[in-house]
């Protein structure tokens, strides 16, 4: 009888050991996955699309200057006067600046979830360019690190109705996200940082529109 009970006990201990190993195999990777970002700070510093537009315009201007002799001719082949050439050049530069100028700016200030743990700060700016494209720019941005963070444009602070702009590029720093054509910012007027894996709101900024 003693031998039978001992064998049963050994069998039970074996089952408990196996269960513990299985639980550890599941919980340890999950814990590491969830906790590791808290100890890793990622940074990025992308230039503003406005600066990029200015650089492109300057390169175009330099190319135009190199061809100034041809450009300064009137349709009849005669050379423009100095004043006429300056007026024509100024008109060309104004047209280029209007193309890449920010026509309207939509923006807001980040705030954390308010739970004492998930925090966010910085500014969200939606730049509507004269070329027709729009960019969400996060400036002086910083958010509590977390796993699987994404940038959403949402109707509120949840993920019930949203448009994903993709995975968050870094937990801090200036960063740009292209907006889908025709997106309705009167509806999706919240920029939120959302953890997809655990459905957790980390922080966000509500957008308001002002003239540039």
UniProtKB/TrEMBL annotation:
Region annotation (Disordered) ranges: 64-92
Coiled-coil stretches: none
Residue ranges with Basic and acidic residues bias: 70-92
The DM13 domain, residue ranges: 108-208
InterPro entries reported in the protein's UniProt record: DM13_domain
Protein name: DM13 domain-containing protein
